[in-house]
Specification:
globular; Taurine dioxygenase; iron; Double-stranded beta-helix; 293 residues; metal-binding; single chain; dioxygenase; three-stranded antiparallel sheet; alpha+beta; 17 strands
């Protein structure tokens, strides 16, 4: 454990990824403690913080201390006018995330990471599960790694948000990357992403937004994607969280995918999310340099 991480009461939840951080008030954390949180996020990929008292203002303050915030979502507006950065996932307004996905990969620069806060929880159900895309890549057979290292995939937000943009937002979305979103043009990303801070490789396709692999037949694309999705979501690559009031979860969007169970019937589930601005994904064929100290 590095000296920076020693500032946290951190309990790993498995040998490879995810950890619980206790005894830290995120709204009153020192700069040193948040530097440790930022380092732990890269190292462990998913961090769980119980017993927090954040509201929307506190969540935004925390996000700004950890990085640069994006708008709530390229298409969906903020929870209210005072909090354009906060994305409310409300089951009463079709706010579900019951498909495996990595957040907002359908833009050129997907978010670096996310901070999710429990607001209203059902009596039971509504767990969220994360997959470690780097562990999944490492455990692929070497010939398969050689194959996917060379591939590029298309990510298309129209599949999930095209109708919303056209009919509920009148064709005018949020300000994203300093421009108003008026359409969702598909983008290309490497199938294998090299993490910009560690150089580790991870699977960077997801059923929510990836439409196909470039330069191969439809049947070949589907076969490769299905193989990767099945491998990514093997139990040994997963951690599952049962939400409690006061829970806050952070994850590295560059090295994980996630899924929220929709198993709570007519009960209401509300969580609020903010996202940190990221960079353009790079693949194994792109030069990698460690970030400046």
């Amino acid at each position: 454990m590095t000296d920076t991480l020693r500032e946290l009461a951190l309990t790993p939840l498995g040998p490879h990824f995810a950890a619980r951080v206790t005894g830290l008030d995120l709204d009153r954390a020192t700069d040193g403690e948040l530097a440790a949180v930022r380092a732990a996020l890269v190292a462990h990929k998913v961090l769980f913080f119980p017993d927090q008292r954040l509201d929307d203002d506190g969540q935004v303050r925390l996000g700004r201390r950890l990085g640069e915030l994006t708008a709530s979502h390229p298409v969906v507006g903020g929870v209210d006018e005072a909090h354009p950065e906060v994305y409310a996932l409300d089951s009463a307004d079709n706010g579900f995330a019951d498909v495996w996905h990595t957040d907002v990969t359908f833009v050129a620069r997907p978010p670096l990471g996310a901070i999710l806060r429990a607001v209203t929880l059902p009596p039971s159900g509504g767990d969220t599960t994360w997959a470690d895309s780097q562990l999944a890549y490492d455990s692929l057979a070497e010939p398969v790694r050689r194959l996917v290292d060379r591939l590029v995939a298309v990510h298309d937000g129209n599949r999930e948000f095209g109708y919303y943009l056209a009919h509920r937002r009148g064709g005018r979305g949020s300000v994203w990357e300093d421009e108003v979103v008026t359409r969702l043009d598909p983008v290309e990303h490497p199938v294998v992403r090299v993490h910009p801070e560690t150089g580790r490789r991870g699977i960077f396709v997801n059923p929510g937004f990836t439409s196909h692999i470039v330069g191969v037949s439809e049947a070949e694309s589907r076969a490769v994607l299905d193989l990767l999705y099945a491998h990514l979501t093997k139990p040994e690559h997963l951690v599952r969280h049962r939400w409690r009031p006061g829970d806050v979860v952070m994850w590295d969007n560059r090295s994980t995918a996630h899924y929220a169970n929709r198993d709570y019937g007519t009960a209401r589930r509300i969580v609020h999310r903010i996202t940190l601005r990221g960079d353009r994904p790079r693949g194994p064929g792109d030069p990698w340099r460690p970030p400046a100290a």
